[in-house]
Write a structure and sequence with these properties.
Layout lengths: L9 E7 L12 E9 L31 E5 L11 E6 L7 E10 L15 E6 L2 E6 L9 E9 L5 E10 L3 H6 L8
Antiparallel strand pairs: 1-4, 1-6, 2-5, 3-4, 5-8, 6-7, 8-9
C-alpha cells in the first residue's frame, strides 16, 4: 500500500506468454477488468450496472468511460520482449459509485480451443509502483480457459485494498466477462 492509510492508488496488471510453435494457430490472451457499483445505487443509463455483473468491462480496443482503466499494450500472439499486455487501473480517480474492481484473463478460443495448460509459459503480475502485489503462472488453473487474477475493494474510508483472486473458469469469453466478479467459478 502506498502512504499511510491512502490505500492503493494506481496499479498495473501485466500478462505475458510465449508465441505458439511454428505452424500452430497463434495464442491470444486478454486482460479484462470490470468495476462494480456500490449496492443500492441507481445504475447509470446504459452502464449495465444494477445487475449482478460489472457496470462495464474494459478489454482490448476499449477503455473506461472516465479514463481510469485502460489497456496500454495488446498482443494477439505473445511475440516480443517483456510483458505482452499491460492494463493500468487508476483506482485513486475511480468514481465513488464503484466499490470493487475485478481483473481477469481470458484466452481467445479462435481458431482452436486452448486452456492455460496449452499456453506456453503464461504469467501475470499485479504491481503498484515497484511493489509486486501478486504474481503467478496459472498452474493452479491449468485446465481453465479464463481466470480472475485480482480484486480491489474500496474500504469505508475510501481507500482501495488488494485481494489475490486466482480462480479458474471454463466458459466462453462473453460469459466470463458477464460473470467476472462471481465468487464461484462457472
Amino acid at each position: 500500500m502506498s502512504g499511510v492509510g491512502k490505500g492503493i492508488e494506481r496499479v498495473e496488471v501485466r500478462l505475458k506468454w510465449d508465441p505458439s510453435p511454428l505452424g500452430q494457430p497463434p495464442t491470444d490472451l486478454d486482460v479484462v477488468a470490470g468495476p462494480y457499483e456500490r449496492a443500492g445505487l441507481r445504475p447509470l443509463p446504459g452502464s449495465g450496472g444494477g445487475s449482478a455483473g460489472p457496470a462495464y468491462v474494459v478489454h482490448y480496443d476499449s477503455r473506461s468511460p472516465d479514463g481510469t482503466i485502460w489497456l496500454n499494450h495488446d498482443s494477439r500472439t505473445g511475440q516480443g520482449f517483456g510483458w505482452d499486455e499491460v492494463m493500468t487501473l487508476d483506482l485513486g480517480r475511480l468514481s465513488e459509485r464503484y466499490d470493487r474492481v475485478v481483473v481477469g484473463v481470458t484466452i481467445q478460443q479462435r481458431p482452436v480451443r486452448r486452456d492455460f495448460a496449452g499456453v506456453l509459459h503464461p504469467a501475470f503480475e499485479v504491481v503498484e509502483g515497484y511493489a509486486v502485489l501478486a504474481a503467478g503462472d496459472f498452474t493452479e488453473v491449468a485446465g481453465s480457459v479464463a481466470a480472475t487474477v485480482a480484486e480491489f475493494r474500496r474500504r469505508d474510508s475510501g481507500a482501495w485494498e488488494f485481494h489475490a483472486a486466482l480462480r479458474g473458469y471454463d466458459t466462453d469469453s462473453d460469459t466470463f466477462i458477464r460473470t467476472l466478479g462471481d465468487s464461484a467459478p462457472a
